[in-house]
Amino acid sequence: MNEKILELINEKKFVALKTELADTMAADIAEIFDELDEKNTIIVFRLLPKDKAADVFSYLTSQQQLDIVSSIHESQINEIIDELYFDDMIDFLEEMPANVVKKILGSSTEEERKLINQFLNYPDTSAGSIMTIEYVDIRKEMTIKEALEHIKKTGVDKETIYTCYVLDDKRKLEGIASLRKLVLSDENLRIEEIMNEEFISTYTLDDQEEIANLFKKYGLITLPVVDKEERLVGIITVDDIMDVIEQENTEDFQRMAAMEPTDEEYLDSGVFTLAKQRILWLLILMISATFTGKIINGFESLLQAAVVLMAYIPMLMDSAGNSGSQSSTLIIRGLALGEIETKDYLKVFWKELRVSIIVGFILSVVNFIRILVMDSVEPAVALTVSVTLMVTVIMAKVIGGLLPIGAKKMKLDPAIMAGPMITTIVDTLSLIVYFNMARILLNI
């Protein structure tokens, strides 16, 4: 399908292209825009039917949206904005330059401006920033017949009608009613007789990661958002939560790789931007690695007495880093999915301790035999290296399991305690253990 549309664009068969676009899904059209230059992007967008143009627009990247907005008339911009769901419009405005936002706000009514500004002022990672105001509300005094007629009249422009929200005169949320239950119940019953008064809700300033966990835990499709007075101010839909989950996962991967998180796509990012993301943590890790050099210098006399010890430093440091990274990765993921809480630190400690003893013992035994057979060194040296390996693995796995929990406890992202950070810490500790173990076992 994409190849056919691209072919029509290249051959400038715009009449046939317009027909083809009308029969193509909005998400598929948005993918095609990734392969177009700015000029063809504008041409294709102008050929889209009005209702489909807004759908496609919501799927585009911020830069593509900016290119389109900068190239079309203000009246066309307003048409697109009017067709967008409210939460998509807020997402769009958050990414646009101030002059574009000012232009759009200038053509809005006073009530719309007030509402838009309210949404734009919510913290980026809060429930308020991802909710939409396009929901169906009903009253408990209504009969089911009246409620269904109300849904038919007002539901056309709502983002979802599958769950209806029962409000009182002060817009306080009293219960919810599914469309399925409304359709299947006696139309003469009142809403208060069939509504569910036990429901899950969230507050406008709650963190989006916690909200994503609620969707997963309770299998939600929508989630009502209330203010401090329990008044309904919006809802969050599952499609928005999927975006949040993808964003949070991306941030975790970036932090685990010792990089500053960014929303920009890799190919759209400039080299200086990418370098800026990476340099800070690399500098921190490089400077912290100087402790390793100071430790080696501090035991210089010991190394001169047993030069063979130098050969095993890389293996010990690698094993320590790898062991710590294994544990930290599992714990970070468990914290992100809500499978592990900060109160579980003793359980994590006990489990990682037992795992590390098993793993460390097997590695040290294999390593002891390998060194004796392949390196032909004294048994005392092989014992020193192997005992150090076991102690290091135990230490690395316990630290790797507990540090992410400590970060979470201090309101930090546990992902910062991933591979690079854990490796730097346990590398330093492994050298201290190694040289002290050598001093004791080799009597140097």
TrEMBL record:
Q: Which InterPro entries match?
A: CBS_dom, CBS_dom_sf, Mg_transptr_MgtE_intracell_dom, MgtE_N_sf, MgtE_transporter, SLC41_membr_dom, SLC41_membr_dom_sf
Task: Tell where it localizes.
Answer: Cell membrane; Membrane
Q: What keywords are annotated for this sequence in UniProt?
A: CBS domain, Cell membrane, Magnesium, Membrane, Metal-binding, Transmembrane, Transmembrane helix, Transport
Domain annotation CBS: ranges? 195-251
| Any Pfam family hit | CBS
Q: Name one GO molecular function term.
A: magnesium ion transmembrane transporter activity
Among the entry's GO cellular component annotations, what is one?
plasma membrane
> What is the recorded membrane topology of this protein?
Multi-pass membrane protein
Span-the-membrane segments of this chain are 353-373, 379-403, 415-435
User: Which family, according to UniProt?
Assistant: Belongs to the SLC41A transporter family.
Q: Function, please? A: Acts as a magnesium transporter.
Quaternary structure note: Homodimer.
The protein's name in its UniProt record: Magnesium transporter MgtE
Gene source species: Alkaliphilus oremlandii (strain OhILAs) (Clostridium oremlandii (strain OhILAs))
